[in-house]
Specification:
Number of helices: 3
Strand order of the largest sheet: 3-4-5-9-8-7-6
Distance between the termini: 22 Å
Structural class: alpha+beta
Length: 130
């Protein structure tokens, strides 16, 4: 595992995975894997509220997806799983202090069980950098 640090947050990246900083989004993938993990961070002048996270998750809430309350690393928020005939998505909307993270993982639905547990472990290592 290596540590990936971004302004305000960090997470552990499994060996063999690539981490790429694309300005306001960090991308993580395994060249031999099946999906892509994206993390975008936003900072407010005041602490992020559950209502802020609901606003960020408006599309998933409007689609009727069931929100699961989660605590991952130093962050709290909501997560959604969305499946179609061909795609699998997991979304996390997380907050710690004044930082909000919008995280998505996507892959082909038929491959959804290949690396999702490892991705969830990665998300569990999220740390607020002060």
């Amino acid at each position: 595992m290596s540590d990936f640090n971004e302004i305000g947050w960090s997470l552990d990246v499994p060996e063999g995975w690539d981490a790429e900083d694309m300005d306001d989004v960090a991308l993580f993938s395994n060249p031999d894997g099946v999906g892509v993990l994206q993390v975008a961070g936003m900072e407010k002048d005041v602490p992020v509220t559950p209502e802020d996270l609901d606003m960020l998750a408006e599309e998933q809430l409007a689609a009727g997806l069931r929100a699961e309350r989660v605590i991952v690393g130093d962050f709290r928020g909501i997560s959604f799983v969305q499946r179609s005939d061909e795609e699998f998505w997991q979304f996390w909307y997380l907050a710690a202090d004044r930082l909000a993270l919008v995280i998505t993982y996507s892959c082909a639905d038929e491959d959804r069980n290949e690396e999702i547990e490892l991705v969830r472990e990665m998300i569990g290592t999220l740390a607020l950098e002060k």
